[in-house]
Amino acid sequence: MPGAVLILAAMTVLHTGSALTTELFDDVGPAGTTWLRVGFAAVLLLAFTGRSLWPALRAAPRRDLVAVVLLGTVSGAMMLLFSEAADRIPLGTATALEFLGPLAVAVASLRRRRELAWLLLAAAGVLCLTSPWQDGADLAGVLFGVASGACWALYVIGTQHVGSRFSAAHGLAVSLTVAAVFTAPFGAPGVVSGGTWQVVLAVAGIAVLMPLVPFLLEMKALQRVGRTAYGTLAGMEPAVSLLAALVLVSQVPTALQAVGTALVVVAGVGAARAERDVLPVPPARPEPSLEVPPPALPIASAVTDRRTAP
C-alpha cells in the first residue's frame, strides 16, 4: 500500500479506538480506562520482545535508560491528561487542543518568524472550538487538553532522542511499561471499584487499536513517505478525530467547531509544507525507529496514545 494510505489508516484506527474508549469512562473513569489500555499494550509488547529486550537493556548506557524512562513518564501523563479532556469536552476539540503541542514544535523548528502565522491560525481554530466567551465552556477540559499538548510536544522531542538509541519495538515496550506504572496510582482505584470482566475485555480489545496497530502502520508508512508528506497528512488528525466522534459516539459538532477544526488542520498542513523548504527529507531507513518527525502522532498516539492517547 502507498505510505499515505497507511498513515490515514493508522489515524482512522487510532481515533476509532479513542471514540470507543470514551464509552467506558462511566464504568472505570478516564484514568482507569487509560491505565488498563496502556497496561495491556505494554504486556503484549513485552511478550513479543522479551528475548531480545533484556540483552538490549543490559547493554544500554545509564543515560539512555534514563531517557526512555522519562519518555514513558511523559507518555503516561499525556494519555491521562487527554482522557480527562475527552471526558469533559468533545473528542475532536480535545484532539485539536492536544495537536497544538507538536504543531508548536514543528513551527519552532522552522526558525522563521513568518511561520508563526500557522500557530496563530491554529490558536484561532482553538478559540472557535472552545468558545471561551460562552458560559457553558468547560475550562477544566480545555486546560487538560492544552496540558496534554504540552506533554505531546515533549514526547516528540523525547522520541527523537530515544529512537536513535533503541529499536522501535524495544523503545516502545519500555516506555509503555513505564507509562503503565506511572498511570497505575491514578487508574487502578477506579478499575478495582467499578471494573467488570466485560469492561476489562473491552479495554483489552481497544488496546490493540490503540496503540499497537497504528504504531505498526505508521512505522511502515515512514519507510515510504518523506517528512513533508507525513507532516501534511498528520495535520488532518483533528478532522479524523471529529469524524470518528460523529460516527461512533454521535458527538455532532456545531458550525463554529467545524470551522475551528478546519483552521487547525490548515495550520498543521501549512507548517508541514513550510518545513519542506527548511529541512531535508531523510532517506528511507531499513528498519523503523521511534523517531517521529514533527508534527507527529502520538502513538501513540502514541503513537503512545498520545493518544496511547488519542
Distance between the termini: 24 Å
Task: Name the poorly predicted regions.
Answer: 279-310
The portion of residues forming beta strands comes to: under 5%
Number of helices: 11
Number of strands: 0
Radius of gyration: 18 Å
Taking the sheet with the most strands, its summary is: none
What does it look like?
The chain is mainly alpha-helical and 310 residues long. The protein is 75% helix and 0% strand. The protein is built from eleven helices and no strands. It has helices spanning 3-22, 25-59, 62-86, 91-110, 116-130, 139-162, 168-194, 197-222, 227-234, 237-249, 255-275. Helix 2 packs antiparallel against helix 3 (62-86), helix 4 (91-110) packs antiparallel against helix 10 (237-249) and helix 9 packs antiparallel against helix 11 (255-275). The longest helix has 35 residues, at 25-59. The protein is globular, with a radius of gyration of 18 Å. It starts with a helix and ends in a 35-residue tail after the last helix.
